[in-house]
């Protein structure tokens, strides 16, 4: 499975790690929904760390869309909300 | 606002990737001949490459400006510190306090700039990496594009094009955001730098350059100039009364108890370094005098 961290690049992550990523992702989502900034930071940091630890960076000459895309390391909750509504994206 | 319910269970990661894919599909749908898509997209990629490189240069320019300001502030802080030391040496605690207050203000500006400098540096690095990554992907896309054009008919090409297109489009979206973020940070930085320029021009952090500068420095200068005058005056007076040192030696040879009594007489012609109205400096030579002869006796 290919995962992108915005601002960092794409990683190939073993499917075995998916369950754990989904748990962390659920935390992230809950934090965004409840407007809980500290929980948001913890969840995002944990999620990114997990992807970096279990994934291997995709070679730059490979052109593949990602199955999952994660926000920037220093994203604010507001930025993530915009990502989800499409407002924050520059058309590619 | 984002949707709750089904979408919420999907997770942030999946939803973001769907948003990216939707963008790519929308762009693809506009194209009539899929192979045109390839050339059009490639043009866009080259434009974005130019843009990201310009972005790197812009951030570097801002970073250098901040660096320059940091140097200026550091110099001011050092200067004020030195002024405080001088002022204190001259017994002007009030001036020293003022200089240190301004130094603290310069220092806090400096600290802030340092943080932002590090941020700019981070953005510069990220953009540089992003531009290298994009370059590699664009190269890959170009190769893929030529293969597709040469090998497939328009109808057959569609699937391959979609793949290549969504891959590159995601990368472009990512890089585009990176550029936007760097621009935002740079804009903040420039506003901050402008404010500090104004502050420096106003003289609030000032000491030695421009404007109001010399309220501290000129007072220190005046004080040290007048003390130079006094010193020279004392030397001249000393030359006129060259007999005095001999009397002094005689006095010290008589022993401590006696010299203590003899001093006021010996001193009168010999050390008038301070003007009569300054009682305290006049006291300093009194303290010094017993020391010198004793050293002489010891050796």
Write up what this structure looks like.
- The complex is a heterodimer of chains A (92) and B (299).
- In chain A, 48% of the residues lie in helices and 14% in strands.
- Chain A is built from three helices and four strands, in the order E-E-H-H-E-E-H.
- Chain A has helices at residues 18-34, 37-54, 77-85; strands at residues 2-5, 9-12, 56-57, 68-70.
- Chain A starts with a strand and ends in a 7-residue tail after the last helix.
- The model of chain B is unreliable at 1-8, 208-213, 246-272 and 278-299 (pLDDT under 50).
- The chains are: A alpha+beta (92), B mainly alpha (299).
Quick gist of this model?
The complex is a heterodimer of chains A (92) and B (299). By secondary structure, chain A is α+β, with helices and mostly antiparallel strands.
Show the helix and strand layout:
The complex is a heterodimer of chains A (92) and B (299).
Chain A: E1 2-5, E2 9-12, H1 18-34, H2 37-54, E3 56-57, E4 68-70, H3 77-85
Parallel strand pairs in A: 1-4
Antiparallel strand pairs in A: 1-2, 2-3
Chain B: H1 6-10, H2 12-29, H3 34-89, H4 93-151, H5 154-202, H6 214-240, H7 244-253, H8 256-270, H9 279-298
Helix pairs in contact in B: 2-5, 3-4, 3-5, 4-5, 7-8, 7-9
């Amino acid at each position: 499975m290919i995962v992108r961290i915005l601002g960092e690049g794409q990683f190939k992550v073993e499917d075995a790690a998916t369950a754990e990523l989904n748990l962390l992702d659920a935390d992230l989502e809950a934090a965004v929904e409840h407007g809980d900034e500290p929980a948001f930071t913890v969840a995002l940091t944990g999620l990114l760390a997990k992807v970096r630890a279990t994934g291997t960076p995709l070679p730059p000459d490979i052109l593949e869309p990602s199955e999952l895309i994660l926000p920037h390391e220093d994203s604010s909750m507001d930025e993530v909300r915009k990502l989800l509504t499409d407002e924050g994206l520059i058309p590619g | 606002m984002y949707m709750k319910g089904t979408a919420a269970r999907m997770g942030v990661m999946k939803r973001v990737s769907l948003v990216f894919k939707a963008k790519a599909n929308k762009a693809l749908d506009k194209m009539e001949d899929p192979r045109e898509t390839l050339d059009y997209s490639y043009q866009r990629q080259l434009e974005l490459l130019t843009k990201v490189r310009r972005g790197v240069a812009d951030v570097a320019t801002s970073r250098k400006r901040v660096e320059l300001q940091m140097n200026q502030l550091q110099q001011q802080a050092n200067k004020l510190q030195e002024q405080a030391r001088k002022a204190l040496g001259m017994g002007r605690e009030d001036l020293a306090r003022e200089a240190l207050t301004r130094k603290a203000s310069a220092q806090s500006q400096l600290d802030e700039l340092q943080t932002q400098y590090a941020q700019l540096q981070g953005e510069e690095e990220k953009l540089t990496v992003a531009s290298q990554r994009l370059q590699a992907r664009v190269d890959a896309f170009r190769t893929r594009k030529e293969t597709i054009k040469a090998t497939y008919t328009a109808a057959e090409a569609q699937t391959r094009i979609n793949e290549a297109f969504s891959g590159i489009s995601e990368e472009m979206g990512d890089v585009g955001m990176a550029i936007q973020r760097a621009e935002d940070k740079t804009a903040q930085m420039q506003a901050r730098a402008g404010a500090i320029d104004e502050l420096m021009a106003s003289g609030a952090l000032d000491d030695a350059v421009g404007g109001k500068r010399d309220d501290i420095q000129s007072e220190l200068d005046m004080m040290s100039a007048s003390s130079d005058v006094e010193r020279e005056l004392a030397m001249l007076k000393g030359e006129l009364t060259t007999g005095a040192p001999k009397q002094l030696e005689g006095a010290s040879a008589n022993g401590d108890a006696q010299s203590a009594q003899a001093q006021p007489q010996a001193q009168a012609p010999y050390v008038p370094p301070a003007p009569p109205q300054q009682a305290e400096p006049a006291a300093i030579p009194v303290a010094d005098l017993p020391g010198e002869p004793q050293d002489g006796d010891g050796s």
